[in-house]
Amino acid sequence: MIFFGTRGLTLTGDSGDFFCPNCGSERPYKRRKVRRFFTLYFVPLIPLDLLGEYIECLTCKNTYNDKVLELAADVEADRKAFESEYERAVRKSMAIMVLADGVVDESEIDAMTSIYNSLTGKDASREDMALEIETTKNEDLAIEDYLESINGQVNANGKELVVRALISIAYADGDFDEEEQKTLIKALSALDITENHFKEIMDDFKS
């Protein structure tokens, strides 16, 4: 039996120093490019399309689009407004999960706010999360389409935080229903999270 398929591999590009919005100071960075490869017996052989690229802070491991390299350290407003790719993905993914069963409870908005702030270290308001849910509802996004579109812009740490956020918000109302389970499965596939990795995340989540 011949085993073949595709997988994304992260390649390293140029490096240097930049002002990291999360660290609040100059930090070393590396440019990462994620390219899809054709695999045979799980060995990557033929490079295919470029899934995306990002700037990774080597200190805090946050990832950003390359516009972060233009960020000035002395422009406080710009620094606060600049959002890492995983922060955006955590917020948007949770909004999609909240909308999965067609009903948005007030408690879910509270939970989403708490989970987001806990995972990102930010101080987002309840109104911020309610707006994200409303915006996402109007966009009518499928979780797999959204996460596949940003798969090449977040690193392994960011992907794991997205999964943790989805698990947390799914359990927030005490009822991890069928639609939420389907949404989580689609998210794992879109982010290339292996079964073993998911089990590790769940074991840590339950502990």
Biggest pleated sheet: 4 strands, antiparallel
How many DSSP-defined strands?
4
Task: Determine the fraction of residues in helical runs and give it as a percent range.
Answer: 40-55%
User: What is the terminal separation in angstroms?
Assistant: 39 Å
Largest sheet: spatial strand order: 1-2-3-4
Task: Give me the number of helical elements.
Answer: 8
Order of helices and strands: EEEEHHHHHHHH
Which properties best describe this structure?
alpha+beta; single chain; 4 strands; 8 helices; four-stranded antiparallel beta sheet; 24% strand; globular; 207 residues
Characterize the structure shown.
The structure is a single chain. This protein is an alpha+beta fold. Helix content is 47%, strand content 24%. The protein has 8 helices and 4 strands, in the order ββββαααααααα. A 4-stranded antiparallel β-sheet has the order 1-2-3-4, with no helix packed on it. A hairpin with a 4-residue loop joins strand 1 and strand 2. Helix 5 (143-150) packs parallel to helix 7. The termini are far apart. The mean pLDDT is 86.
Summary of the model, kept short:
This protein is α+β, with helices and mostly antiparallel strands and about 210 residues long.
Could you outline the blueprint of secondary structure elements for this entry?
Blueprint: E1 4-20, E2 25-40, E3 43-57, E4 63-64, H1 76-81, H2 85-98, H3 106-120, H4 126-139, H5 143-150, H6 156-171, H7 178-190, H8 195-206
Antiparallel strand pairs: 1-2, 2-3, 3-4
